[in-house]
Amino acid sequence: MNRAELLQTSERYGTPLYLYDLAEVRDRANELLAALPGGTSLLYSLKANPLLPVVAELRGVGCGAEVSSLGELDVAVAAGFRAADVLYTGPGKSRGEIDAAIARGAELFSCESETELDRLGAAAADAGRRVRVLLRLQPGDRPASGLSMADGRQFGLTATEAVRAWPAAAESVELLGFHVYLGSQLGTVEHLLTGFTCAKAVVDEVVAGTGVPPRIVDLGGGFPWPYAAEGVGCDLIGLREGLTDLLSDWAESAPRVWFETGRRPTAAAGTLLTTVIDVKERESGVVVVVDAGINVLGGMAGLGRVLRLNTTVDNLSAADDRPEVAVDVVGPLCTPLDRVAARTPARKPAPGDVLRVHNVGAYGATASLTAFLSRPGPLELVVDGDEEVGAWRIDARAVPVTG
Description:
Elements: H1 3-13, E1 17-21, H2 22-34, E2 41-45, H3 52-60, E3 64-67, H4 70-78, E4 87-88, H5 95-103, E5 108-111, H6 114-126, E6 131-137, E7 147-148, H7 159-165, E8 173-180, E9 183-184, H8 189-210, E10 216-218, H9 239-246, E11 256-260, H10 264-267, E12 270-282, E13 285-290, E14 314-315, E15 324-330, E16 339-347, E17 354-357, E18 379-384, E19 387-393
Helix pairs in contact: 2-3, 5-6, 7-8, 8-9
Organism: Actinokineospora auranticolor
Active site: 334 (proton donor)
Family: Belongs to the Orn/Lys/Arg decarboxylase class-II family.
């Protein structure tokens, strides 16, 4: 959409408003698929954006699905995936969650510990089923850039634990192979290849210890894209060739190799529109209060627990002759933590102006503090080029339950 169309959309639906374009989702997914070696598979990680039409679109271009909750599993099934084909991941799967997932038809799990392997086996046996399992491995090294998972001690088994666990699996568990995830936002093809090399190395170490070649290896993702800022992710030229060379020594054992999309297919497809409520001139600079705070665009940074946002904004309402100033953009919440952008340049905002934030199609609405202060969730509008598909709103209200 051009500027005028975005402003018309904000008037029609109100703000804060997320806008997702399925045409962009398709383009980015096909670009990523083309950058991977032939014969490999790509799983869409629903945590990036679990909105049903987005998930269905990625299924349509040939992606599989990776989920980390019963809610995500339900969305994947509603989008057309078979529950038995969905990879169910996460470091804290309780017996109740596993039972519920199996009852929904889930059969394929990423296992995070020896205890969880026993739990999966018992749940499957009690249900009269057999589950297929990938052992998640802790990588030994971290890539040179990105949000590394290598120090995430809650994830996966060490190589020693995996070698010990392999022969101890219950009869109700079919061990298929391994799952490794190095980290997010690996900023260049070189960094991606370094990460996948580290992931492959830990798989090779465990295979040497078990003597059993895997049938499936999920090497994760890390494919980069800017977050809440203008720009594009790195060009993927050379990735296919580099991965083909890296995986060449698996040609004889021929495991099926999977990768995970991460944020890349959906990030560029998302735009956030937010309205300026107030502007305050301060000695330290211009403070702009908008209707989208960390309850709308938190990016899991609202409590300072992960990397801070470096958000950029574009004033859609400002004429080109309006001066550009550095602004601090804050949200409407009653906390000093509600900061969206710091010292970012923008055509000087005025109350009523509509600001645009780029590249928020991944880790946007559902990665924010949507329940904080009981404010309405943001609207999520899906389009496919010029055609509107539908609109949704996150509802985080408490509901009564009975004991």
